[in-house]
Amino acid sequence: MRFGERLTKAVAEHGPLCVGIDPHPGLLASWGLTQDAAGLERFALTCVEAFGGRVALVKPQAAFFEAHGSRGVAVLERVIADLRDSGTLVLVDAKRGDIGSTMAAYAAAYLTEGSPLAGDAVTASPFLGFGSLDPAVEAASASGRGIFVLALTSNPEGASVQRAVGADGRSVAQSIVDSAARANAGAQPFGDVGLVVGATVDDLGVDLSDLHGYVLAPGFGAQGATVGDLRALFGPDLRGVLPTSSRDVLKHGPETAKLRSAVDAVRASLAV
Amino acid sequence: MRFGERLTKAVAEHGPLCVGIDPHPGLLASWGLTQDAAGLERFALTCVEAFGGRVALVKPQAAFFEAHGSRGVAVLERVIADLRDSGTLVLVDAKRGDIGSTMAAYAAAYLTEGSPLAGDAVTASPFLGFGSLDPAVEAASASGRGIFVLALTSNPEGASVQRAVGADGRSVAQSIVDSAARANAGAQPFGDVGLVVGATVDDLGVDLSDLHGYVLAPGFGAQGATVGDLRALFGPDLRGVLPTSSRDVLKHGPETAKLRSAVDAVRASLAV
Fold first, then answer.
1. Domain span including residue B108
2. What CATH code is carried by the domain that includes residue A248?
3. Are A94 and A62 in contact (CB under 8 A)?
4. Would you call A161 and B155 a contact, using CB atoms and an 8 Å cutoff?
5. How many CB pairs under 8 A join A and B?
6. What digits encode the pLDDT tens for the residues A203-240?
7. pTM for the full predicted model
């Protein structure tokens, strides 16, 4: 089954919430864990236990695993395997981007059956042009996986790149939206190429109406966006939006029961 | 000693050539190696033996290590450690980019003393804005390391982002050049923030004259650019350019002596 279909099924069952696993030093400390690969593993496996089977999508942030070197990356592999075993879709937030055979190597790592780092989808960065990501789009399609491409982010520095205007008069962000829409053409309801669009941007400034893809919206909760904000921001395109919450849930750990309650509360707030 | 000074010393001793370690499947096959972490390790350690102590900078490409999962990343750690032991500067080509504490985690991984993935410098991707890379710029400066930020690449798809024009009338690429120049202000001759500028772009289209930083120029050799092209492209800014060759050298393996001869030949072609 294609990724777009698998995610649609998961969202129908669990709602659109994506929960992040962000084991940053402050959270390891507040959970009483050591700042090493052992502490990281304890943190991450607690998250797997708390979130697996309860949400549509879980998003481990690769940076926090790489900060512990190859031993940390081995923990990420275990997180991916355990979540997939629980039937939960895994989006590896790695924001990879390169060209040619190098991009193909990232696709081999994150989007190819049998690779220990391959979840169900990966985030990608299009600074080298959306077209440079083609090897990943193709690998995703070939293996029933997905890709979420950065389009428009909520950090103030992002506009200098994402809102710049190309020779054809479109913003960089809009041209990425349009390229993703082309990749998703014909998919019902949603294809395999999603986007990342910051939930706290004041003014969406891109037209998502033809995307036919999912939109990951980080910045929900701790970083400030409310359900009302999402509705105001995305309007009729809200249907494909996956609000993403990390710190707002994770701060309730390390007890599994409290993490689950926090997830349930965020899910409920989204159902309003 | 700051990275800019260390690199200047290395270039004075060995010339400006940067050699890439790109263990892609085709090269593993042509070297008679297995497509697994053991083949990867054999490939990478042969490169370390051939290049260590002979060039200013060696650039392992992270993607080809990640394609073998955490075991591949462990090989990358060994490559970094062994090259640094040989006195050769290591640029980890990972093109990382994110915001806030996530970017800080990448900086902890690639730019902080004691991290097994920290070479002497790392490549970074500014799709989230040059300012989003501040945690990496700061970590680099604090640990005598460097960062090479993507600015303008030679692949045809890159222009859709990099040549888009911002509200202030500058292209995305130029605004990245200018931000890097600000970060390097006052450094003599070169600061710690370098750029990646594709050597095969037809028309440079950015003004590098105030950069005071090194410019990594991939695309030299196998991908088409000659020394004459570099001179025509960079003009008076050629002094800080680091031509980067990977496949053109690596295709001469697996014999160490032949790899060394290939490096010497490329070095000699640059001295013309």
1. 3-271
2. 3.20.20.70
3. yes
4. no
5. 196
6. 888 999 999 999 999 877 765 678 888 888 898 888 89
7. 0.97
